[in-house]
Amino acid sequence: MSNKQFDVVVIGGGPGGYIAAIRAAQLGFNVACIDEWKNAKGGPALGGTCTNVGCIPSKALLQSSEHFEHASKHFADHGIQVEGLGLDLAKMVGRKDAVVKQNNDGITYLFKKNKVTSFHGRGSFVKAGGVGYEIKVAGAAGAEETIEGKHIIVATGSNARALPGAAFDEEFILSNDGALRIPGVPKKLGLIGSGVIGLEMGSVWRRLGAEVTVLEALPTFLGAVDEQIAKEAQKAFVKQGLKIELGVKVGEVKTSKKGVSVAWTNAKGEAQTLEVDKLIVSIGRVPNTIGLNTEAVGLKLDERGAIVVDDECKTSLPNVWAIGDVVRGPMLAHKAEEEGVAVAERIAGQHGHVNFNTIPWVIYTSPEIAWVGQTEQQLKAEGRAYKAGTFPFLANGRARALGDTTGMVKFLADAATDEILGVHIVGPMASELISEAVVAMEFKASAEDIARICHAHPSLSEATKEAALAVDKRTLNF
């Protein structure tokens, strides 16, 4: 009996994989997508890390916890009196799970709509041959089948990086997965690493009542963020109650029935001990190529275990492509999606395009942090002459009405041409505001272009216009 044959086989059903599969199907290809995520009942749960234990559930909990904090601390400012405020954590987590299921089901529907064949199991290479490559699908209860694809797109994502000597047990030492499933609000919560996941999860549990301490090895807070924006964010987080320790060296981590003990040294070299109920480790992610059986076909990996690709996401093998977290570049869901679309179009003989210089970054804390393009420290390092303009939300009418005036918008533009080189925002709805900057930069706009565009009043986007005006030192409302 011959294997089922497909034009395109996608291994991984996360944001990169499922989008690649749908776009390939739209282009007329016969497409299969293999994904092994399981829901609580053991059935398929398409969407990868992002939908199941990443972007989507974290945003659901962030929203719920923000409502709780508003009710407990800020409603009174609006003349709203709340009595008997309580927390039903099980219901909050249940809502998060329902949001995840809605997204899982949505992808299943899209596969049916676009006639993508879905295989539930773990995909791995068997050999090259036949029409292209044989791929094994290892399903539940040891069930296996082999399919063939002319083109293979590997979109297997990434896994949380564990702290050496402190493996994840998801009970006391938590990855992003365990951080989303804490059964009760911990009295004391520790965070190793002040990256995106750590800060977002730390924010959730702080709002719900945990005492949160962040241990960061780097001497600066959010080193990838524009320094001025990062300092503004740090001030806001400390004011909220996050305890942030920078320049630390983490030593031995011990777990017991009581919780977790972390030995660490502060920036001054003084030995310290942190005792917490739970510890979230957020020190980055590693490409997920375990079990892919790359050696069977000679697929080249780099020293990090990432699949080696060129600018077009082509691997070392003909007709094998790789996208998203499993290759070079930022580990962002939307970057994976764009690469997925581009690869599907390249397979069809089109010219797929991804511009790494205009990929936005977002941290969904409160205040939100979002940016696109270069930071001020990067421009200084490369010796590029630039102009900067900032505008505080404190001077924005809509932000005042919202009662959320923390932060600013910052523009960086070329000193000679006025081309926008970077836009950085810390403040309310930064995740939405950054899109205007992405569009502007994609079209090589100048700061003057944004300054001349009419923005609705009153709106948070007026802060974007005013920051663009500030590049030329002519703000109107500050």
Automatic annotation (TrEMBL):
Reactions this protein catalyses: N(6)-[(R)-dihydrolipoyl]-L-lysyl-[protein] + NAD(+) = N(6)-[(R)-lipoyl]-L-lysyl-[protein] + NADH + H(+)
| Compartments it resides in | Cytoplasm
What are the FAD/NAD(P)-binding domain coordinates in residue numbering?
6-340
Keyword match Nucleus: no
Per UniProt, the keywords (alphabetical) are: Cytoplasm, FAD, Flavoprotein, NAD, Oxidoreductase, Redox-active center
Q: How is the cofactor bound?
A: Binds 1 FAD per subunit.
Cofactor(s) listed in the protein's UniProt record: FAD
Top enzyme class, one word, equals oxidoreductase
State the remark under miscellaneous. The active site is a redox-active disulfide bond.
Concerning its family, UniProt says: Belongs to the class-I pyridine nucleotide-disulfide oxidoreductase family.
* NCBIfam families listed in its UniProt record: lipoamide_DH (TIGR01350)
Name by which UniProt lists this protein: Dihydrolipoyl dehydrogenase
Q: Which organism is it from?
A: Variovorax defluvii
Q: What gene name is given for the protein in this entry?
A: lpdA_1
